[in-house]
Amino acid sequence: MSDPEISVVMPCYNAAPHLPATLASVQAQTWRRWELIIVDDGSTDETPAILAAAAEEDARIRVARVRNGGPSRARNLGALGLARGGIIAFLDADDLCRPHRLERLAQRFAARPDCAAFYGRVRFFRTDPDRPDTTSMIRRHPLDASVLLGENPVCTTSNLAIRRDVLRRIGGFDERLVHHEDVDLLLRLVAAEACIEGIDEVLVDYRTCDGGLSADLEAMRLGWRQTLEHAAKRAPIDRATGRRAEAIHLRYLARRALRMQSDPRLARRLALQGLRRSPRAFFDIPRRGALTLGGSLLAPLLPAGLRRRLFA
């Protein structure tokens, strides 16, 4: 096999239920010059057997098994230690690539040699990717710290592709971080004045659920504060910018709380905290701010299913 142009890097931990679909989404790519590097982060379910069978059947799939050390360490090992492609496209083990994702990325990286990273739009789904709850939008203007610290338009590491030499130059992922490690990486790219550009097409399907790492709202907020502290050490962030970003982040957490099977009072608390941080930032998208505040105040009266549909 000739050297791949794109290395898809996937950290993997106890992902057996969704792994076959994720593997199939990579194998169905219209772009053929790829390899899939999977770092099994100490799985204890059927994941190792599924990966061994996949690697046996497809020479483009390479698997490394390590002791559990978290997704950032696994991504760094895959991207900086094992990958051969000049472009790294990340993918988590329960998400799906759209069939044209790698082709679009290859085209854009070739057309924009000055650009370090690209991201696309994301469809969020629970059971059927063709019936998504919502779809993200790309940002037309350059990404900056206040945007990334508020509501990150890249949305998920699965939606990020970056030149391997640039990733190496900025040091890869911070392995100390459990939450917002992708935001921390993007902030370092912005600080280095690297170009990060959006592609206005859906490239990734993101599987949502009430459990899992991203559903732990308090831990997410703590991770956000750690990310802010790290960013402030690299480049000063004035108090007003920090408050605006935190207001938007709290609004985001309130919306997640409304979608989840959580105590409805949590959404109200998060929304009111965001409103106090910066009313202007909380309502920077008026409809979103108004729906979040109204929904959080009415949450105890709304059935969980209705909350989920309204705030998808």
Describe the structure.
This protein has helices spanning 19-27, 47-57, 71-82, 101-111, 145-150, 164-169, 181-191, 217-234, 239-259, 264-277, 279-282, 286-298, 304-310; strands at 6-12, 34-40, 61-65, 87-90, 96-97, 115-125, 134-135, 160-163, 195-207. Helix 9 packs antiparallel against helix 10, helix 9 (239-259) packs across helix 12 and helix 10 crosses helix 12 (286-298). Strands 1, 2, 3, 4, 5, 6, 7, 8 and 9 form a nine-stranded mixed sheet that branches. Strand 2 (34-40), helix 2 and strand 3 (61-65) form a beta-alpha-beta unit. It has 13 helices and nine strands. It is globular and about 55 Å long. It has 312 residues and is an alpha/beta fold. Helices cover 46% and strands 18% of the residues.
Q: N-to-C SSE series?
A: EHEHEHEEHEEHEHHEHHHHHH
Average of per-residue pLDDT values: 88
Q: What oligomeric state do the depicted chains represent?
A: single chain
The computed structural class is alpha/beta
